[in-house]
Amino acid sequence: MPDFRKQEWKKIEDFLSQGKSRLAVVYGRPGMGLHGLLKKISENRPTLFFKASPTCSDMENRLFSSSIGMQTVTGDLSRILDWISGQARLLSGDQELLLILSSYKNFIAASPENDETLRHYAADVWKELPIKVILADESILCMKKAFESPDSPWTKIDHVRLCLPPLSFAEAGDFLRGFRPEDAIFLYGMTGGIPALLEKISPDGKAWTALADEPDRNAQTAVSGFSGGKISTLSDLPGRKKSTSYAAVNMPSILEKLFHPDNRKPCHPESIIENELREPAFYNRLLTALASGYQRVGEIAQETGRPKDIVVPYLNTLIRLGLVKKERPMTEKGNQRKTRYSIVNTGDLFWYRYLAYHYDLLAKRQYDRIWTRVLLPDRSKFEKEVFVKIAGQYLLHCEGRLPFQVEELGGWWEYAGKSKNRPDRKGLQSLLPDEEGPAGGLFRGFDLIGSGSLQDQPASVFCRIYYDEKPVDVGEIKSLIALSRRLFQGGNHYYMIFSRAGFDRNARTVAEAIPEIILLTVSETAAWLLNS
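Request: output the structure for the sequence above.
Response:
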């Protein structure tokens, strides 16, 4: 199994090797590698595989019986499942028969009775037989409704549930390793970590037009105040030299690979909306508003021209589909006034922010214009948003670089309105600079906060990411510390600052003297993750 699906494969192996659960439910949006995973599962074990089609019940069952090798093709599902029972009884020793039913949505759409009959056999008839069942589909809403709804009969049957997520930045290293770190960050953001899209830009494609022996312009040893906390520089990584060969990326070529009309489906978010939901036009409009920076319900309602009580149910549906998330600041989870909504996957964000508004250029295949006029001027802003997600992944898996394990990850923000002259609550304005925020307003806060415990005491790490061309100075570090102490009383506080342009001499000196301050460059962090 590829390295990037090790966790998912471990869960499947546990299901296949242990006797408690007889049913597994596997699903994920198109492009996540579901069918490849099912193929891998079926290797070297007795397996019956059927991929359901969008047809009527009688024809579906005939296709089922033919697909699994029955000599007599039948439209009676009970006869098919009885035949499977007989096949299981023929097995010797500790062998088990694996039944994989893919495109489960088509199977139950053919007839509700099919679902009831299969559930009866899985729960009762096959209870004592060596049969395990895997039900799979790329329809997230269908699978959640069938196996997570409290009123679903399937919930009464013990089962393993596995939703295939996008790849983390480290997992995507199989596809991105060899690109310059900042290019890898941008490409990861464009693809959203979806394996099928990452594969399109992998090293053997035409996106790699040349090799350049280019030193990393941001190479700088990260500073940490405690043992084991120093991140490796490029020169420290196995097989790396200070001057590293990177692929010179042809961005217009990559845009064509990912967004040419013939290439977009089925991974494209608009295709998912069309297949999963009614009224796709308004759902796409909502996602466009979110991508444009409208994050609060009032802003979204005003931008889309719909009242709040109409907008909220639509947002909740997008949350169930996994396209949108709803969040509140750490320590203020009951503060509804600070609720914000955002797009989960950076690839979807990329589409709705940059390409949905320039569909005419895509239709004309003017990829050079899209790159130079639309993407390049805003690259740093988008790249920072992607890196915030990458930094969150780093916090959750940076064993040895923090003295405690991050158990919960979130953020904290304070909306400051549309004017810098607005009265400043709690005197926060002097502690941390304003940034341009949703709908043209101003906000301030921490990009990330990780919480856990250290020696039975609460512990937190406060993170800020600086993505401009100016090295971070000691004043910015002091502001971060002062804000954390003003808002979060007690516990052990650590400070992790990521900078694209590095840190000035005074900032590095302070970090060397204070163990709680950890300074990391963006490119070093990205390189470490890609090679970890």
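Residues 205-243, 418-434, 438-442 have pLDDT under 50 and may be disordered.
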